[in-house]
UniProtKB/TrEMBL annotation:
Keywords, in A-Z order: Glutamine amidotransferase, Transferase
Entry GO MF terms: transferase activity
PANTHER family xrefs: GLUTAMINE AMIDOTRANSFERASE DUG3-RELATED
Keyword flag Transferase: yes
PROSITE patterns: GATASE_TYPE_2 (PS51278)
Keyword Transferase: yes
Pfam families listed in its UniProt record: GATase_4 (PF13230)
UniProt lineage: Bacteria, Bacillati, Actinomycetota, Actinomycetes, Kitasatosporales
Name assigned to this protein: Class II glutamine amidotransferase
Domain Glutamine amidotransferase type-2: 2-284
UniProt cross-references to InterPro entries, sorted A to Z: EgtC-like (IPR026869), Gamma-glu_amide_hydrolase (IPR052373), GATase_2_dom (IPR017932), Ntn_hydrolases_N (IPR029055)
């Protein structure tokens, strides 16, 4: 599987989150504590928003822990919203187009998990992608197909609804092909203004996901902690694993739910697949 983090708040240097915490994403690339694999070395990527409405991305196929360009970039890029992802392949090739995050217009998307039996149902799922989006699929991962299915099903106008319809579609196609538990996912999506993070699996045993605690309260508890000290009042993070040894800094995202981050505030809402997507799967 993979590990990832998403940040939203006042602009900070990317290295402050990607490299500097005690259990940073770079440390997790070698010593993951909650992932399926301890090592996540099958590529990495960062995506960030700057002065333009569309985000920039940098992805590479090597391990994050030894990439000098990643260290150089994160020490010079300041951003108010960014994604970072380290990859452990579930079977697809280690190539740049398979590294997260994925981008379309102003949207970024990243995923930890898998579509079970993807090789069996890949063609049927790909054919459900809108023709005007299909040519933009560059890689071979289930994660990217999930993204373009969500875009097809209305991500730009209704992100939670689109992801629910996407999951419903994948589950319907999977079960029709004898796959008992088709979906395992923690997914992050953002448009430069708002951030959504979903935790769901068909089996209801989803991969780990946490959101950061209110910063003001943490400052009172840990006045000398560097990670807490640098965070602004509106800073919010969602991570696959806690970034440090401050237990009160992190809250687990509940099973079958999603987090909406906007204007420096969290909202946690229930998530379930939408059966409306079944109609899409049945189209000729």
């Amino acid at each position: 599987m993979c590990r990832w983090l998403a940040y939203s708040g006042s602009p900070i240097m990317l290295e402050d989150i990607v490299y500097k915490p005690a259990h940073s994403l770079i440390d997790q690339s070698l010593h993951s504590k909650l992932g399926v694999e301890t090592t996540n070395g099958d590529g990495f990527g960062i995506g960030w928003y700057g002065h333009r409405p569309t985000p920039a991305i940098f992805r590479d196929v090597g391990p994050a822990w030894s990439n000098r360009n990643l260290r150089e970039l994160t020490s010079h890029i300041r951003s108010r919203m960014f994604f970072a992802h380290i990859r452990a392949s579930t079977g697809s090739a280690t190539q740049q187009t398979n590294c997260h995050p994925f981008r379309s217009g102003r949207w970024l998307w990243m995923h930890n998990g898998m579509i079970a039996g993807f090789s069996t149902i890949r063609r049927e799922l790909a054919l459900a992608v809108s023709p005007d989006l299909y040519s933009s699929i560059e890689g071979t991962t289930d994660s990217e197909v999930m993204f373009f299915l969500a875009l097809t099903l209305g991500l730009q106008d209704d992100p939670p609804g689109a992801v629910a319809r996407m999951v419903g579609l994948v589950e319907e196609v999977g079960r029709r092909n004898g796959i008992e538990y088709p979906v395992q996912m923690t997914v992050a999506a953002c448009n430069g203004e708002r951030l959504w993070a979903f935790r769901y699996s068909t089996e209801h045993r989803s991969r780990s996901l946490f959101h950061s605690t209110d910063i003001e309260g943490l400052r009172a508890l840990y006045p000398g902690n560097p990670l807490v000290g640098k965070a602004s009042d509106e800073a919010r993070m969602i991570v696959s694993e806690p970034l440090g040894d401050v237990p009160e800094a992190w809250n687990e995202v509940p099973e079958s739910s999603y987090v909406l981050v906007q204007h420096g505030r969290y909202e946690i809402l229930p998530f379930e697949p939408s059966p409306a997507a079944v109609a899409v799967a049945a189209q000729p």
